[in-house]
């Protein structure tokens, strides 16, 4: 409603495209733009970790054990003399790869299952959605712990666990969009023209459900980073000596009185991408769903 | 649809879902690559011991038979024997569950008392300092890992200031005051997330309601903003908040895994983690089953309460 009046008052010569309109609305949300900037910064330092990191993530130096922050070691060193700043940078690489891998897997599986369930309806819908109900009967951390108990802790194991744990969420979102979409005239006309079902699902329905799913992707990335870090902290995630932000905090917590930098920097490092994804997700949600009155 | 019809439908749906949950929990052991007995025993695995455990778990029989027997046991309260505790799983869980429940029951009111007024205040004065401050707290609250906030709180209030015990658990039946003193830091760390989530929901739900037709009508009638917000919008915007509160209440048992580990509280969360680390499969199965049951029951009760308060929801569900 409010967007309609907005476009009426704005007299523009060029007709703004849908992306432009979206960008206008999103960029009004300064917090979300801040989140986007923060995320871009984190992605750049993660990609350039090889050039930025002053040391290797695993190199031990017994001449520099438990040193506080200094010019040589901007975030100090740990009990094995490893440079915390370098470990944080390479830790980002690991936590991002696990989380993005897991969420992308859930996104692909969940969206396909949800679209198919909503489109076909009937027993397939019933069967898939009851499966979703079952998986959603577990809090995701508990589901993750149960699966780790079976497959054992490993880097790609965690990605797989996240993929399984988050699939139902995407399936639910995709299904609810798919149910209303499959009754639309343009989908019906595709059926009449004899377009194959997989083609209808992927080429025609998928792009139309992308909006709400992108919000879900962003928020699940935030959850995923927290869950991955939590599993590492608990000792059932990434195994040493790989630099893992959660494990670094677990190592530091018992000597926090003597070496606060061992806990503080990894902790803040975990928060930054989560804040970025949460603020972007909130901004996207407000943009896609402008139900709230402005002012 | 009548309320009792909806009630019956939801309760009946609960049964197949719990059945699905039981199959999943049963399969945890069978997903283990190789023999779970070998994995459980690790370096101590001798052929005799492996055979003994396999016999105890009934691993030599066909899977459907194993499942039916396991389920029959579970329904009678027999969850097998915990290897790390050398006791029946059911008695271990019964003891630990009350500890976690105490943590959850203390956390929830704390979260409620802070989250709801803050959310309302933020919505009443949108774009004010109160709003920005509470939104800032909200974003940080949902973004800070529980283990980080717990470690920070512990360091400041227990290690540096020495006001509160660093960790440990005292039963309220033993010494009520000491029990509460030990619970303050765990409860605070656990409440932070719930406060953030509930406050954000309260705020956005209230702002959503304000955008609706009938509120605009009240505004046009000349009713003051304060009366509209507190007298009319609040009641209606509370319904989505109840759903979120129910979810948070259910999630708290999983948040307890981290909190109990950090503060050395012998509850359900710590039990499941120890069971996973020690590959005590009967204990993993039992505790996962119990948490899923808790989560499902809490969600069921929430759904029923929401449907009772807002009968429109029943229509959407049918």
From TrEMBL, chain A:
Its main location: membrane. The keyword Transmembrane helix applies. The chain crosses the membrane at residues 31-53, 94-121, 127-149, 213-238, 259-280. It is a multi-pass membrane protein. SUPFAM superfamilies: MetI-like. Keywords: Cell membrane, Membrane, Transmembrane, Transmembrane helix, Transport. This is ABC transporter permease. It is found in: Cell membrane. The keyword Amino-acid biosynthesis does not apply. Residues 92-281 form the ABC transmembrane type-1 domain. Belongs to the binding-protein-dependent transport system permease family. One of its GO terms (biological process) is transmembrane transport. GO terms for cellular component: plasma membrane. CDD domains: TM_PBP2. It comes from the Archaea. InterPro entries: BP-dependent_transpt_permease, MetI-like, MetI-like_sf, OppC_N. Pfam families: BPD_transp_1, OppC_N.
UniProtKB/TrEMBL annotation, chain B:
GO terms for cellular component: plasma membrane. It comes from the Archaea. Residues 97-302 form the ABC transmembrane type-1 domain. CDD domains: TM_PBP2. It holds the Pfam family BPD_transp_1_N. One of its GO terms (molecular function) is dipeptide transmembrane transporter activity. It is found in: Cell membrane. InterPro entries: BPD_transp_1_N, MetI-like, MetI-like_sf. It is a multi-pass membrane protein. The chain crosses the membrane at residues 12-32, 97-123, 135-160, 180-199, 238-259, 288-309. PANTHER family: DIPEPTIDE TRANSPORT SYSTEM PERMEASE PROTEIN DPPB-RELATED. This is ABC transporter permease.
């Amino acid at each position: 409603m409010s967007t309609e009046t907005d476009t009426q008052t704005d007299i523009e010569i060029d007709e703004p495209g849908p992306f432009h309109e979206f960008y206008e609305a999103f960029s009004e949300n300064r917090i979300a733009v801040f989140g986007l900037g923060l995320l871009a910064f984190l992605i750049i330092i993660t990609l350039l970790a090889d050039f930025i990191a002053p040391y290797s993530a695993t190199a031990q130096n017994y001449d520099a054990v438990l040193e506080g922050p200094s010019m040589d070691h901007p975030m100090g060193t740990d009990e094995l003399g490893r440079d915390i700043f370098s470990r944080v940078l390479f830790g980002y690489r690991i936590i991002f790869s696990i989380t993005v891998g897991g969420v992308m897997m859930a996104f692909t599986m969940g969206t396909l299952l949800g679209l198919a369930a909503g489109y076909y309806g009937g027993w397939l819908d019933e069967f898939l959605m009851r499966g979703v109900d079952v998986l959603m009967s577990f809090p995701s951390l508990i589901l993750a712990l149960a699966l780790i108990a079976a497959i054992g802790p490993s880097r790609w194991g965690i990605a797989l666990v996240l993929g399984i744990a988050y699939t139902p969420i995407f399936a639910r979102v995709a299904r609810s969009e798919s149910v209303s979409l499959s009754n639309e005239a343009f989908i019906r006309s595709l059926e009449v023209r004899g377009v194959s079902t997989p083609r209808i699902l992927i080429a025609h329905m998928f792009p139309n459900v992308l909006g709400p799913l992108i919000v879900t992707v962003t928020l699940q990335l935030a959850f995923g980073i927290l869950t991955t870090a939590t599993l590492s902290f608990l000792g059932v995630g990434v195994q040493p000596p790989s630099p893992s932000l959660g494990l670094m905090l677990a190592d530091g917590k018992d000597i926090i009185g003597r070496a606060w930098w061992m806990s503080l920097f990894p902790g803040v490092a975990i928060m930054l991408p989560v804040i970025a994804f949460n603020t972007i997700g909130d901004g996207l949600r407000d943009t896609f769903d402008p139900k709230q009155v402005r002012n | 649809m009548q309320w009792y019809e909806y009630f019956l439908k939801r309760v009946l749906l609960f049964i197949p879902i719990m059945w699905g949950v039981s199959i999943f929990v049963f399969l945890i052991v069978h997903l283990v690559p190789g023999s779970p007995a070998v994995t459980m025993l690790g370096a101590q695995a001798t052929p005799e011991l492996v055979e003994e455990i396999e016999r105890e778990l009934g691993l030599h029989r066909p899977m459907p038979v194993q499942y039916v027997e396991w389920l029959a046991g579970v329904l009678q309260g027999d969850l097998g024997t915990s290897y790390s505790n050398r006791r029946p799983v059911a008695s271990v869980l019964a003891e630990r569950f009350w500890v976690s429940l105490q943590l959850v029951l203390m956390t929830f009111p704390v979260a409620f008392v802070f989250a709801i007024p803050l959310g309302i205040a933020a919505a009443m004065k949108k774009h004010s300092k109160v709003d920005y401050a509470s939104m800032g707290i909200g974003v940080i609250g949902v973004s800070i890992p529980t283990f980080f906030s717990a470690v920070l709180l512990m360091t400041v209030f227990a290690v540096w200031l020495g006001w509160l015990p660093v960790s440990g658990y005292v039963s309220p039946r033993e010494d009520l005051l000491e029990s509460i003193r030990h619970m303050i830091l765990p409860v605070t760390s656990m409440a932070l997330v719930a406060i953030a989530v509930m406050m954000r929901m309260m705020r956005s739900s209230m702002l959503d309601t304000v955008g609706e037709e009938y509120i605009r009508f009240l505004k046009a009638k000349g009713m003051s903003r304060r009366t509209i917000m507190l007298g009319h919008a609040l009641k209606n915007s509370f319904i989505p908040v109840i759903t979120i509160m129910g979810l948070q209440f259910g999630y708290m048992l999983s948040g307890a895994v981290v909190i109990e580990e950090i503060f050395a509280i012998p509850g359900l969360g710590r039990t499941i983690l120890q069971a996973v680390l020690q590959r005590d499969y009967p204990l993993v199965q039992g505790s996962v089953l119990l948490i899923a049951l808790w989560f499902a029951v809490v969600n069921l009760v929430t759904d029923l309460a929401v449907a009772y308060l807002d009968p429109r929801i029943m229509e959407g569900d049918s």
